[in-house]
Design brief:
Distance between the termini: 28 Å
Mean pLDDT: 92
CATH superfamily: NAD(P)-binding Rossmann-like Domain
CATH class: Alpha Beta
Number of helices: 8
Largest sheet: 7 strands, parallel
Radius of gyration: 18 Å
Shape: globular
Helix content: 40-55%
Low-confidence stretches: 268-274
Strand content: 15-25%
Number of domains: 1
Length: about 270
């Protein structure tokens, strides 16, 4: 078990959803939280919830590499070495390929994929130097299987899964003491995927954000390399040995490609940041 008490944890997308929940869970365990988000008002509220000293919050656009480097330098100067980086910020358009705008596609990859590079490159050098640390990538079950209505989002999360896997391989050579965890959850009830539906709730339930956050924190403490929620999502890789038509039929039967048919997103906008 890894003791995260008195350790500095940077969380992107920390002001709401599972980011907020993880911040609260980790703070209970004695961690110092550096919360990043675009929503300054919600960050202020989070700081009030965290209480105590040692925590910090900053409005940071993780899609901007220079802004990330500047904010990371401030965290390192104030709090010292960062032990855990949780790449949690994300956006979803919830639109089909011919409906989503060029701007939204760029934003999806800027936040869901490229930001992983900017934040990790900012904090990883000191982790490698100390041969200690943990990088958590919150991907998605949509990074394991393509989903209708999520072409840009799913592609960005497939990239996130590949990012974690490749990084894990590199660190095994250069700094085996630095751990990584990739998280691949089904839809979560944060409001980001408001309106999504599941055909078999007993098999693929809409997940509760508090339980997902607690599970990720436990994975950090146990140095688990991969978290897949719910367990049924583990069935995806083995079914890929099937012919494509059979694979698609299984996905259709499970309701995967009908899940987004009534998607609204938080506030019905269809554009959300985690």
């Amino acid at each position: 078990m890894t003791d995260i008490g008195n350790r500095t944890v940077v969380i992107t997308g920390a002001a709401s959803g599972i980011g907020r929940r993880m911040a609260l869970e980790l703070a209970k365990r004695g961690a110092r939280i550096a919360a990043w988000d675009l929503d300054g008002g919600r960050l202020d509220k989070l700081m009030g919830e965290l209480g105590g000293s040692g925590h910090s919050a900053e409005v940071v656009d993780v899609s901007e590499s220079e802004r990330v480097r500047e904010a990371a330098a401030r965290v390192l100067e104030k709090s010292g070495p960062v032990h855990v980086l949780i790449n949690n910020a994300g956006v979803v358009s919830g639109q089909r390929l011919l409906e989503v705008s060029d701007e939204q596609i760029r934003k999806t990859f800027a936040v869901n994929t490229l930001a992983l590079f900017w934040t990790t490159r900012a904090f990883l050098p000191s982790m490698v130097e100390r041969n200690a640390g943990h990088v958590v990538t919150v991907a998605s079950a949509a990074g394991l299987i393509g989903v209708k209505g999520l072409v840009d989002y799913s592609a960005s999360k497939f990239a996130a899964v590949g990012f974690d896997e490749s990084l894990r391989m590199e660190l095994a050579d250069t700094a085996p003491g630095v751990k990584t965890t990739v998280v691949c959850p089904y839809f979560i009830d944060t409001g980001m995927f408001e309106g999504t539906e599941t055909r078999f709730a007993w098999l693929l339930p809409i997940l509760e954000e508090g339980k997902v956050a607690a599970r990720i924190v436990r994975a950090i403490e146990r140095n688990e390399r991969k978290v897949v929620l719910p367990p049924a999502v583990h069935l995806i890789p083995p079914t890929r040995v099937l012919p494509v038509r059979a694979f698609d039929a299984v996905a259709g039967f499970l309701g995967v490609n009908a899940a987004m048919d009534h998607f609204r997103g938080r506030g019905g906008s269809g554009k959300e940041r985690a």
